[in-house]
Amino acid sequence: MHTKNLSGHIVRHFREVLFWPVQLMPLGNGVQQHWEVLQQQGGGNQWRLLASRFDSAAHSFEERHYKEFVTFLPYVQRFLYGESLGQRVPGIAGSRGGSAIRIFRRNGVAALRLLLHEGEAPLTLAVEHVELWFFDDIDVAFLKVELSAADLPFAQVNDLLYRFGRTYPTGWDKEGHGKHNVFRAEWLGPDGAVLAASDSDNQKKFLEYTRKHRSPGIAVHWDYLLRPLVLDPSEEAGRLRYRQIEYHRMPLMAYLAVDNPRNISREEWLRLGLVATLHPDEALPSHDPDVAEFEQRYCYDRFWTDSERGPNTRFICSGRAFIVVGDSCADYFCDSERGLLAQFRHQYVLLFLVAHFHRAALLVFSERMVEAVHGLDIRAAQSISRFRRKVYAGFEGFLRFTHRYWFHELSERPHVQALYRLSSDHLGNDALYHEIKDELKDMSQYLDSNAQRQQSATIVRLTVVTVFSMIGAVATGLLGTNLIAEADAPLMTRLAYLVTAVLLTTMFMLFAILKSRQLSEVMDVLSDDQKTLFARLGSIGKAWRRNLRP
């Protein structure tokens, strides 16, 4: 079955939220944060820092914001919104603990014009927000783009979700157009002027960039949104530099208000739910477990009754995509203040963001460890020292991440927690976390064992020095007791006494070294306070006679 065979459902209200995680490269000064550098950009900077609704009287704090806040557990609230520290906290009375998130909003982008296929009529969507999210202690940022439209054919929405949100083409067709991409995408300003247009058909540009930098390039329209951030491998100047973290397909969320969603066929549900991986024109792989077990794996149907009375709201989550479909005639589903639309834009967006933030942060930790090992040369002390610093820095960062950001319980509300776990499980966050933790542990054990080897070698050298130093110390000490009063004797006589003392001391020390194992056993027996003195002496005699036997 193909897209053209899908039914003629109309999506009365459509929302799409795209998240693009990028890795921020170190600034080098160790003082400023990336968001501070962005805030200090001069003229032409389209980004402005959003003030928190908790700290600014200029922004109203409405019921939907309150409902968003109380959805989450206290430690998640502190992560997302910060906290107000009490008057009784010593030294910081009355101060506020800020959120771990800094959000910048981009001005000047009002709409998106899409041409899904060559020769088709263009489709225009409103751009609700373009935002850039930064996180304390973690060199990860998320570009967030929210789009909306009304009265779109269901098949067109499915095609749009599949094609839009790709940072570069994965290949080209015979006509030279990017595969899987929209034919053309244009960001429009408030006056309708084209700000930036996609260039997925510029095959030469992408091939040359990849050959030169061993990294895929970025399409022009996505590169435009991130300015002044620049792609790290390029020669272009810029303090704020980033790398791609994952595959070119951006994680997406979608909200679809449809007339009577009960009439949506199973094939349509499948194509919508697997939109991140299943091409709209591809035949359904009926034997694929994702298709055969689709409802069990990806659908959360707590609010899906399939009845006239309703509710008939279905949540579909595959990790890469989070989709909500409901009845456009249901007031609660379409209510943007208290209904599900408000929850989608607030609670569910944060739920999806947290799951992908966990994955992106863990992948960045993994990348750092790979770079540390790649630069390790066990034959060079300086390389080992540099490796040690990187590993300890990674361990410190991972510890802060674990205690500040890592959690399994997001909310006490069953459906919110269930959807969060569904997202996290499909992304494989738990397995990735334990993998990174084990890698750090292995590296730490290597450093510890290397330090122990160095310490053991040092102790051996010190022992050798001590042993041979004792010969002179004992010999001179023996002569210094004046048991033999030859202070006024001729020089040769005194030298003879010194040589004799040194030889006797050396012979005694060599004997002690040769019998060091037996002497160690003697010391162990003598120190055993569980036996009487006579029993210990008897054990020593038996052990000594046993060692003397041929």
- % residues in beta strands: 15-25%
| Alpha-carbon distance between the two ends | 90 Å
Share of helical residues: 40-55%
Radius of gyration: 36 Å
Largest sheet: 14 strands, mixed
- The oligomeric state of the chains shown is single chain
Number of helices: 17
The structure class reads: alpha+beta
Total E-strand runs? 16
Spans where pLDDT lies below 50 across 5 or more residues: 1-5, 87-96
Shape: elongated
| Averaged pLDDT | 86
Task: Walk me through what this model shows.
This protein has 550 residues and is an alpha+beta fold. The chain has a domain at 467-548. It has helices at residues 34-39, 63-71, 74-81, 154-163, 203-213, 220-226, 266-273, 289-292, 294-298, 331-334, 340-374, 381-404, 414-427, 429-479, 491-514, 516-526, 533-548, and strands spanning 10-24, 47-49, 83-84, 96-97, 101-106, 111-115, 123-135, 138-153, 184-188, 194-197, 230-231, 241-244, 252-258, 299-300, 314-317, 321-327. The longest helix is centred in the C-terminal third of the chain and has 51 residues, at 429-479. It is elongated.
